[in-house]
Every structure is written in C-alpha cells, then in structure tokens.
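U., I forgot to send this yesterday:
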Amino acid sequence: MPPFIQYIQNEEHYTKVLLHTLSVKQELWIGTADIKDLFIKDGSRSIPFLGLLSKLVSKRVNIRLLHAKEPGPLFRNDFDNYPNLAKGLERAICPRVHFKIFIFDLETAYIGSANLTGAGIGMKSPNRRNFEAGILTNDPEIVESAINHFDTVWRGDYCKQCDRKEFCGDRLDEYTVHQNYK
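Result:
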C-alpha cells in the first residue's frame, strides 16, 4: 500500500479511527489524556469499546493503553465485565500524557486531538460531539516517530526527572507489570 496521510475531522474520528481498531491483527497502542465509557458498533448492536478490546485480547492482539488519569465509574464497571482485560490489556497512567495517538499494527497511526471518549471519538451524534482534528497515516517516518514518542513515555524514560510524581498512580519507572483498574 502506498503511503497516505489523511486529515480527519469531527465524526470521521469514529468512522476512520475508532473503527480501524476492528482490523488490528497484532498490536494496538492507544494514548489519551481522558478516557470514558464509549461504545462501538458490533454488527447490528452497540457494545462498550472495552468489549472490542476484549475480543482483540482473545485473538492475542497486544494492547497498550496509556492515559493521564483514572477513567470514570462507568468505564471501570464495563472493565469488570471483561475479565480477560485484567491480564491481557497492558495499561499505564502518566498524568503528563496529553497526546492522542492510536498505533495500529505498528504500520498506521492516528495523531490528533480526540480523547478516548464518546464526545471525542465515539458514537455521539454530530450535534453533541467535540470538534476534533487529526491525521491518519501509514507514512513510515511519521508512524515511526509516533511509535518512538509513545514508547519513550511507556518505558518511563521521563519518570526519574518528573516533577509531577505526586500525581502519578503508576510510577512507570518502578513497575514492570502495569496495574489493572481494580
């Protein structure tokens, strides 16, 4: 496939980014500042996005979820409905994360403004969603830069010198296994 760079806006975040997760075969990395309960179409019904992640974990897809703060109670309740996520989903919290990055099979990346929320990237109607913008690309140079940026934070490279440790629930430099939502 030749390299592409596509500008994504508003509800295209759902149709071109979130739905892209359905085609992931090996790796899915998600970085977001905010994370809330959101839904995705699964055939003729809607399911929590965590249901899709659970299906991917069952297919042995490696998933990393990096976010800035604990998700809300609805998300945590949905998380409990998918027990395979507790061991099959790697997650970490870093209060300094503000980027919004999706990396699909280490070949395609979304980089933009949309948080992992219904108003940002989910199924909300066009009259209730946030105004969002980003790019979706498989350009190798951009994808590699997004991978390196995400992975540097994921590995905890900034943790030793971080001045926000008092807000960090998942000190990345001290944990080799990331915490679940319990």
